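ok new one. same drill as before - structure tokens go in, u give me an amino acid for every spot. 891 of them this time. try not to just spam alanines like last time pls lmao
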């Protein structure tokens, strides 16, 4: 007879049960408890049993992914608080005041700012600043702090209290045009001595923090720097966790046991416009998500006032009520009176009514309006201490707070508080009284709320300085102490400059060969960080596997299937290559950590991130912008570039526009080299500019191709033209005749070969003399021209390089590339000759290279027709020649 209690089937049915009678007795016991004491008691006993087995040697049970809606750490288990709580409360109060004052003063100019976020999270930051966050005056690395973007006013307020900012600087919050203002959010490029990590593009902070913690381990495992004392802290909003990037790398952190990482998620239950999970519970959802990914989860939800209430919950009714109440309802509870709370929260069962009857109105309001763990330093300290002492897994702290806390009833838990940018003077008086600040009424009589701080010799300031001195100085702080790197010897570069002889190689392979040689350099070879999203073999990088190794914190715990082959898949704890799997976002986060190591750790690294060019900028342009903000340096390589070189791959693999996206990033120096020697010149210059004595905060984007060609030797005297973006590669073939039509063909990347073939066809078939120019960088030509335009407005006589280079060149100019026409069109305004561009506008398609190029009208014959059309418009050739050419070439 089937057991009516059991499900139709169980996963355990496929395993032998050596004692079915014992199993039945356990089930019967559980049924009896449920019947006699209720389901909560049965669940409680099961939880206790699971906890016991988890600490019993030899047992192997998966943990629960969700626990009750209570604190992880009981009050009785909290460690002793090591600081002066009253003193820290006064310091926190000053920071709350000055943050609100700064934003309110700025609002008079219509600049706005965010008040409610820091008001909610003040103790989450202050407890860290007083007891955990290490500065850079020790080993130079300190902790890495990813500050929640909207909380920046609170960080500025603390820097003001510490004497790192002045009142005048606070009054220039969001006023950067004059050069002295404070950026609205954490922007290292705008305030490079304070901010280390840009975070306000939501979702990028958590992703970057995970890969930063991972890169810290990478540096340590490779013997470059001991980062054991560095801890990564990421402060996030619960609404921010909706962004896919926020949770994209949780499994990586859990899988690699990054116990040097702590997420602090401020669960005030509010997004920008309203509740995060109106009908659900975001804390429970996040707990399950993080636990499933292998994280240690610490819930810090309720303040100490709740302890005596939980002690009254003898049958689990209160726990059940907390579990079933959706977040939007909790937000409502935080704004209602005691009568509402008695009716709507405690009025749902006899047990809860009895509990509610024992509570005063004041106690009810304290429970639901103020008593949150995130507002109590002892609770926050206990959570942080647990996080930094936990080993073997990263920790997430889910800290519950009230958004807009201490700003008054007009702010607290209001849906609109994210958009509220100022307090009235009456609200400041209320805030002053609540925080018990010694600000006289006379200071609040005008229209401008004052900043306020204790005297320099006050106990608060002495305490503040003592605590930060014990933690190795101020934080956050950005400090660049890295020494320049020597430029590698010319030998590696000369190999490419000599050309490939009769051998055909692609520029992708040329780049890989160059880097392979550079990685052997005794001075800088170990500093190269190859990063690839699981396409290393596509790019010909498998030769690096056995020599450089692929980084894995566990090394190789298996016998590689290709161990007996020459280019075997070698994983090692000290491996140099970061093979990230199929994740461009993760790879770029890795690149960012490596590209900024010169500042974060004082250790300059030379990352190169190589990817399908279509899947780089298009997918992760936001991260590239953050990379620029973070002042990253390194080489980004868009491989298999162009819209027509990816034979057979089709629409979503064909990149004809990444250079256009890259051109929008001011820190990206974009190049589309045609030949191997151009790659060598650009990389050498990049090393000088990014790692030399006068290092610049830029990064390089190079597109390389998978089309094999004979690589010519470098002509004399072309280095300047390569770096500036244009030089004459091959002059026109000599043609007899007094009035030979003349033409200039400009091309970049693999299109140089179409231009060269078109040059021969024009001479042989049409008697046209065409010079062929290589244009390694349309974008750099444009930037130079824009700078010259700006200089002329200031009275300087500067002519753009592209204008000077083409000065006197006879005939019209025809530009061709494997990119959409807007890429070469960037330079059109500064070309004095008649301008025509042809390119690969539209969606890509799957076919042979020849067919695709004919389709887009960029193959050599199409270039000839466009050239004749440009000449015909000037009257240099007969108009009929255009039609004749189309017919001759079958276009």
């Amino acid at each position: 007879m089937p057991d009516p209690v059991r499900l139709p089937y169980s996963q355990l049915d496929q395993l032998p049960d050596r004692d079915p009678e014992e199993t039945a007795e356990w089930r019967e016991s559980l049924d009896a408890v449920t019947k006699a004491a209720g389901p909560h008691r049965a669940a409680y006993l099961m939880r206790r049993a699971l906890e016991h087995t988890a600490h019993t040697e030899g047992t192997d049970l998966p943990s629960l992914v969700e626990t009750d809606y209570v604190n992880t750490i009981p009050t009785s288990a909290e460690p002793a608080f090591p600081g002066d709580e009253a003193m820290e409360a006064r310091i926190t109060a000053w920071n709350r005041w000055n943050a609100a004052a700064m934003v309110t003063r700025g609002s008079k100019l219509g600049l706005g700012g965010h008040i409610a976020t820091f008001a909610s999270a003040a103790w989450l930051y202050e407890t860290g600043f007083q007891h955990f966050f290490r500065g850079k005056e020790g080993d130079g690395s300190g902790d890495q702090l990813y500050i929640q973007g909207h909380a920046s006013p609170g960080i500025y307020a603390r820097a003001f209290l510490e004497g790192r900012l002045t009142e005048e600087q606070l009054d220039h919050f969001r006023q950067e045009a004059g050069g002295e203002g404070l950026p609205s959010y954490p922007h290292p490029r705008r305030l490079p001595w304070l901010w280390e990590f840009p975070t306000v593009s939501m979702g990028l902070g958590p992703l970057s923090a995970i890969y930063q913690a991972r890169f810290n381990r990478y540096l340590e495992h490779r013997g470059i720097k001991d980062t054991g004392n560095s801890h990564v802290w990421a402060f996030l909003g619960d609404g921010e966790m909706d962004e896919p990037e926020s949770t994209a790398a949780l499994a990586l952190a859990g899988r690699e046991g990054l116990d040097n990482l702590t997420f602090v998620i401020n669960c005030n239950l509010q997004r920008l416009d309203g509740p995060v999970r109106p009908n659900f519970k975001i804390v429970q959802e996040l707990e399950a998500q993080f636990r499933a990914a292998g994280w240690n989860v610490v819930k810090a939800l309720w303040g100490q006032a709740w302890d005596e209430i939980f002690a009254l919950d003898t049958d689990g009714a209160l726990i059940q009520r907390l579990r079933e109440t959706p977040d939007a309802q909790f937000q409502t509870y935080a704004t209602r009176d005691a009568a509402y709370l008695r009716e709507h929260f405690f009025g749902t069962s006899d047990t809860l009514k009895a509990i509610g009857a024992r509570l005063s109105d004041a106690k009810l309001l304290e429970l639901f309006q103020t008593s949150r763990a995130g507002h109590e330093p002892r609770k926050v300290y206990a959570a942080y201490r647990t996080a930094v002492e936990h080993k073997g897994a990263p920790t997430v702290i889910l800290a519950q707070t009230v958004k807009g806390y201490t700003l008054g009833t007009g702010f607290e838990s209001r849906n609109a508080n994210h958009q509220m940018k100022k307090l009235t003077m009456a609200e400041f008086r209320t805030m002053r009284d609540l925080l018990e600040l010694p600000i006289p009424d006379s200071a609040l009589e005008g229209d401008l709320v004052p900043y306020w701080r204790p005297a320099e010799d006050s106990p608060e300031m002495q305490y503040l300085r003592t605590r930060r001195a014990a933690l190795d100085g101020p934080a956050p702080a950005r400090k660049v102490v890295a020494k320049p790197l020597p430029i590698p010897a010319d030998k590696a570069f000369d190999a490419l400059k000599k050309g490939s002889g009769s051998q055909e190689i692609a520029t992708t392979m040329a780049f890989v060969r160059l880097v392979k040689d550079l990685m052997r350099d005794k001075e800088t070879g170990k500093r190269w960080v190859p990063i690839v999203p699981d396409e290393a073999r596509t790019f010909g990088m498998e030769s690096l596997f056995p020599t450089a190794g692929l980084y894995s914190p566990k090394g190789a715990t298996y016998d590689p299937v290709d161990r007996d082959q020459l280019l075997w898949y070698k994983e090692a704890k000290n491996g140099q290559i970061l093979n990230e799997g199929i994740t461009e976002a993760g790879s770029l986060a890795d690149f960012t950590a490596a590209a900024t190591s010169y500042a974060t750790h004082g250790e300059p690294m030379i990352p190169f991130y190589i990817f399908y060019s279509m899947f780089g900028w298009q997918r992760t342009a936001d991260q590239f912008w953050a990379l620029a903000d973070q002042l990253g340096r390194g080489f980004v390589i868009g491989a298999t570039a162009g819209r027509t070189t990816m034979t057979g791959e089709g629409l979503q693999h064909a990149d004809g526009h990444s250079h256009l996206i890259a051109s929008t990033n001011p820190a990206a120096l974009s190049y589309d080299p045609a030949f191997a020697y151009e790659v060598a010149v650009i990389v050498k210059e990049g090393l000088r500019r990014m790692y030399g004595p006068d290092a610049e905060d830029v990064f390089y984007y190079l597109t390389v191709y998978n089309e094999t060609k004979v690589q010519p030797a470098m002509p004399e005297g072309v280095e300047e033209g390569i770096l500036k973006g244009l030089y004459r590669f091959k002059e026109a073939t000599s043609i007899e005749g007094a009035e030979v039509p003349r033409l200039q063909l400009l091309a970049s990347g693999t299109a140089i070969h179409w231009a060269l073939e078109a040059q021969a066809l024009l001479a042989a078939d049409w008697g046209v003399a065409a010079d062929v120019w290589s244009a390694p960088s349309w974008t750099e030509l444009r930037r130079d021209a824009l700078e010259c335009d700006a200089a002329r407005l200031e009275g300087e006589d500067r002519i753009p390089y592209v204008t000077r280079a083409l000065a006197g060149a006879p005939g019209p100019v025809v530009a061709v590339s494997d990119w959409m026409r807007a890429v070469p069109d960037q330079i059109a305004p500064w070309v004095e000759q008649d301008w025509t561009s042809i390119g690969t506008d539209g969606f890509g398609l799957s076919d042979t290279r020849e067919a695709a190029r004919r389709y887009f009208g960029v193959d050599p014959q199409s270039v000839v027709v466009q050239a004749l059309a440009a000449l015909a418009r000037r009257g240099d050739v007969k108009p009929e020649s255009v039609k004749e050419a189309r017919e001759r070439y079958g276009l």
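The domain at 728-889 is CATH 3.40.50.920 (Rossmann fold). and btw The chain has four domains: 1-61, 85-303+372-470, 490-541+577-710, 728-889.
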